[in-house]
C-alpha cells in the first residue's frame, strides 16, 4: 500500500518533470520519514486497463494527490480520477483528496469550489516565491 497516489498530466513534460524531480524527491527521498508514492509510469501494471490501474491506485493509497494545471483540470483523466477519489471519500467517510495548484488560474474550477467546501486545508498552491517552497513541502508532508 502507498501513502499517496499522484494524479497529474503525464502528457505535459514540464508537469511530469516537476512531479518526478521535485515532488517525488521531496516526499520519497529528502526526509527521514519517507512517503511512498504511487506513480503511473513507475507503479502501474501495463497488463491492466487504465481504469483498473486507476481504481487500484486510488484504493491502495491513503491519499490521492492531484497536481493541477488548467488543461489537466478539464481532462477526462482528471475527472475520472476525481470522481473515483470522491466516491472513496463518501464510502469511507475519510478525507482522501489533496489538490496542488501549479497554476493560480484554477480558482474558478467547479471541482475546487466543491473541494473548498469539504476541506479547505487540502488545497495547496505552489508558491511563486522560491523562499516559500520549504513551507510548501512541509505542509504537503503533513497533509499526506
From TrEMBL:
A biological process term (GO) from this entry: pattern recognition receptor signaling pathway
Entry annotated with the keyword Transmembrane: yes
Every TIR domain range: 1-144
Keyword line: Glycoprotein, Membrane, Receptor, Signal, Transmembrane, Transmembrane helix
InterPro entries per UniProt: TIR_dom, Toll_tir_struct_dom_sf
Cellular component terms (Gene Ontology): endomembrane system; lysosome
Source organism superkingdom: Eukaryota
UniProt xrefs under SUPFAM superfamilies: Toll/Interleukin receptor TIR domain (SSF52200)
Location of the protein in the cell: Endomembrane system
Membrane topology: Single-pass type I membrane protein
Xref: PANTHER family: TOLL-LIKE RECEPTOR 7-RELATED, TOLL-LIKE RECEPTOR 8
Protein name in UniProt: Toll-like receptor 8
Amino acid at each position: 500500500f502507498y501513502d499517496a497516489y499522484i494524479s497529474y498530466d503525464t502528457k505535459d513534460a514540464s508537469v511530469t518533470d516537476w512531479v518526478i524531480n521535485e515532488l517525488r524527491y521531496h516526499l520519497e527521498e529528502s526526509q527521514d520519514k519517507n512517503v511512498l508514492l504511487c506513480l503511473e509510469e513507475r507503479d502501474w501494471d501495463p497488463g491492466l486497463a487504465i481504469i483498473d490501474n486507476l481504481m487500484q491506485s486510488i484504493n491502495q493509497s491513503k491519499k490521492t494527490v492531484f497536481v493541477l494545471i488548467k488543461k489537466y483540470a478539464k481532462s477526462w483523466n482528471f475527472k475520472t480520477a476525481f470522481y473515483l477519489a470522491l466516491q472513496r471519500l463518501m464510502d469511507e467517510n475519510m478525507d482522501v483528496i489533496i489538490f496542488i495548484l501549479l497554476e493560480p488560474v484554477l480558482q474558478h474550477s467547479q471541482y475546487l469550489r466543491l473541494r473548498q467546501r469539504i476541506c479547505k486545508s487540502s488545497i495547496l498552491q505552489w508558491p511563486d516565491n522560491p523562499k516559500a517552497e520549504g513551507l510548501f513541502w512541509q505542509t504537503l508532508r503533513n497533509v499526506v
